[in-house]
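Researcher: Structure prediction, please.
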Amino acid sequence: MSGGLFADLFTQGGIFHSRDVLRPTYTPTELPHRGEQINALASVLVPALRGETPSNVLIYGKTGTGKTAVAKFVGKELEEAGFGVKCSVIYINCEVVDTQYRILAHLARHFDKEIPMTGWPTDQVYAEFRNALDDERRVVIIMLDEVDKLVRKGDDVLYNLSRINSDLLQSKVSIIGISNDLKFTEFLDPRVKSSLGEDEIIFPPYNAEQIKDILEQRASLAFKPGSLEEGVIPLCSALAAQEHGDARKALDLLRTSGELAERARSVVVLESHVRSAREKIELDRVEEVVKTLPTQSKLVLYSIVLLEEQGTRNITTSAVYNMYKQLCPMVDTDYLTHRRITDLIAELDMLGILHTVVISKGRYGRTKEITLSIYPSKLKVTLLQDYRLKVLSSVNVPTQARLGL
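Model: Predicted structure follows.
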């Protein structure tokens, strides 16, 4: 069997033992520096093993502080405890399953109920779930990750789930809500808020030393022995600690560093691979943001790219506006006012796509000088992926647009 295209790549073997250990979906068997939170959640859920209803609990903390990992870890331990009471833990990511119908249908399907993707009255889906849930004695823990995403579309499902125990004869239900947003409960119905937040657990950010411990533990599982240069893990943890103690980003950085080393056919991950990985991750993030921008913002960015290509020094808001006004008719769209374009530039600055500095021009007032935070050539390729802007790739824009002051 020839392996064709992949034969050489496959026989190199690579430096990973299991790269999935570094992905967010992996639930480790040990969670360094989260013993306090693990014990707090276990204390809340232990009544389930006696057949009693645990309190509902809200888990708060910034991204990458171990909330989901701890909840899944404790949930798995609960299911496997085996003290004579059947406990089931159902995990739902509310960023994906984001409406009352979908949540209830997902829960009903967990108990082998056939629910169509759409079409039934919500009351019917709720009844199917409740009946399936109550056909034997058990305690069910429903984990709603990113629960704040659900609340933005109304809190009906939280209201129904938080009161479901009054409709059950045999089973009992407890809800764990997980959120990055400490303030999302302000938008809840007071009855839901009091029911949902019976207990609260706060997850603080990790510091650099704690992230280093987490990376060392995962790296021992993810990489083959001797695959990491000595400074790689300290560098990854230091960079992630700057990002508010986000362990998820640190793990992502380490995995991407390994992948870049592998593609370069290196047998060791070097610090240079970490720096390249950081640039790549940041660039990927910015690219994703650019792709989702409205057309007007994309036209503003394309105007800046063209000014850069034409060698314009000290790109000002007025120069951008003059170029932008020439591009609008080419893509068959009306142009906005100068003031509105200034606002869009400020928004792009906040997103980190460009950088602006206010410059005084004496008696001529003040203006903003604009520089891009990404390579113009890379940004241009990303912008031209939008079918509305494709026409601009074959258009020569006169250089007088850059004469604006």
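Model: The CA atoms of residues 16 and 345 lie 43 Å apart.
Researcher: Thanks, that helps.
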